[in-house]
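Model it.
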Amino acid sequence: MSDNEKRRGRTWSAFTRRLLVAATMVGGGLIFVLNGPPSAAQETKPVPMALHDIAPTDGRQTAVFAGGCFWGVQAVFQHVAGVASVTSGYAGGSAATATYEKTETGATGHAEAVEITFDPKQVSYGKLLEIYFSVAHDPTQLGGQGPDSGPQYRSAIFPRDEKQAKVATDYIAQLDASGVFSRPIATTIEDGKTFYPAEAYHQDYVYNNPGQPYVVIYEKPKIGALHRLFPGLYRQKPVLVSDSAS
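Modeled.
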């Protein structure tokens, strides 16, 4: 486990203690403590459906999204009906630098990303984009997400073909024109980039570490937002990497 990951745990354990003290002092702060502080992960809102989408075809398709720490993005899409698998990994750089330690330097070109394998007859690429922009992360943040800063935490879409690139580009323009966000969308479209799976200890991280302070404050609220905004697509039992490996 890297020093950066250990730092996350130490930092947010201390921050959680400070929140408890503050809640005790002001009174009536229990809900605030349980949900954590206002953050990009919690400022979720419904967004319009994509006006353009990819027609469903037989067989599974893949999508690759980056939006901050891959723990929470993976966890969100693991709860989406029609998704067959979600793998945390790296996209944007080379195979030689596709490791957690190297990516965390911010100098590899990689972003923490997830590869989603899905059945387009159950959930479309456009619908995955809708979930990505509304609950998986804040697409207007530049240079990181929430407490995580650096290009490795950027908002980026890595289309697998020209159709995905076109739908994603059109959807970003649609959302910007709609005014649903108060700031322009910062998400980049990065073509022709290979996805590399992350180390085993990063897979299913939210499921395996439900009480970790960073997870409680920043990642689990995203799953609640998915349930609230997409009840018809939400499934209680997540599809796990460990299930497919067993």
